[in-house]
Amino acid sequence: MKFFPDDVPYISYHCTHKERTSQCFLPNISYAFVEIPKFNKHKEQLKTTEDYWVHFLKEASNETEPPKEAPNDNYLIRTAKIDRSKEIVLKLSELGLPLDIIVNATGLLSLEITKLINQ
User: Fold this and answer.
1) Which of 14, 57, 86, 96 places its Cα 20 to 30 Å from the Cα of 42?
2) Which residues pair with 15 in a beta bridge?
3) What domain of life does the UniProt record list for this protein's source (predicted)?
4) Is the pTM above the cut of 0.90?
């Protein structure tokens, strides 16, 4: 069963917005849909972490353990750390702390902090 049309990739990302105005009130809430039946890569075509894990899920009845060749980039952990860093940066900025203090407190680069504040 296909959930989205064929032109939507097997992994698609979606966010919520107000129907009438298309204004987004929940920018930190988004959804990722993985349509396993659409995934048609063979083992030798796998490149990304997502490729390896979706392949493993699709072939779960034939495989007994996760793929050893999969890149180990800990995507979810990195994403959680970025979200937490953003939360801390915004709070320190709201408190009026100067950029150099925020850099020292977070260990982030000033460019990263500026991007987080301006998002």
Assistant:
1) 14
2) 30
3) Eukaryota
4) no
- H/E run at residue 31: strand 30-34
pLDDT tens for each residue of 55-74: 888 887 787 666 677 776 66
Query: If DSSP codes are grouped into helix, strand and coil, which group holds residue 82?
Result: helix
Nearest C-alpha neighbor of 2 from the set 34, 37, 39: 37
Domain span at residue 105 reads 74-119
Tokens of 51: 């490729």
Q: What is the three-class DSSP state of 15?
A: strand
- Quick check: 77 pLDDT over 60? no
- Report helix, strand or coil for 17: coil
**How far is residue 43 from each of residues 17, 23, 39, 58, 69, measured CA to CA in Å?**
37, 41, 11, 11, 10
Number of domains in the chain: 1
For the record, the structure tokens of 9 come out as 């990739």
